[in-house]
Model the fold of this input.
Amino acid sequence: MKARKVKGLHPEMALAEAASRIVEVRAGELRAFAPRALQGDERALHDLRIAAKRLRYLLEVMAPALGDEARRAAKRARELQDVIGEIHDCDVMLPRVQELLDERGDGEPRDPAYRGLAVLAAHLRSRRAHLFEDFTRAWEEHGGALTRRG
Done:
């Protein structure tokens, strides 16, 4: 996902004003991905994570100019970024584990390797579902504050 260009910046602007404009654009990116991400779209989740990362780093760097709310928002962005990153880990690992299971065919249920892979796949599916619930809860709690206009 390519970052949106921030219009209206110029060298004579006060730092806080320029930072606020950039924050608004980065928050808009976050807002744009949220509806699809909340429906479980893997690509939108990934893009939302990247948008949260950009917003977080901007808020961390600009906190001296933007104040305590920027520090709090950076923390909320990091929490979203972390949980989405863990979801992404599950999304990457599950197909790999499933591929190993598929290579074993139907598998022999008494085969420890097959059982181990089957348990790992079940764990990853369960963990992803739990993490997705954490994400939706975090978005409900913090997403609005991160993307609030004005």
Q: What stands out?
A: DSSP finds four helices and no strands in the chain.
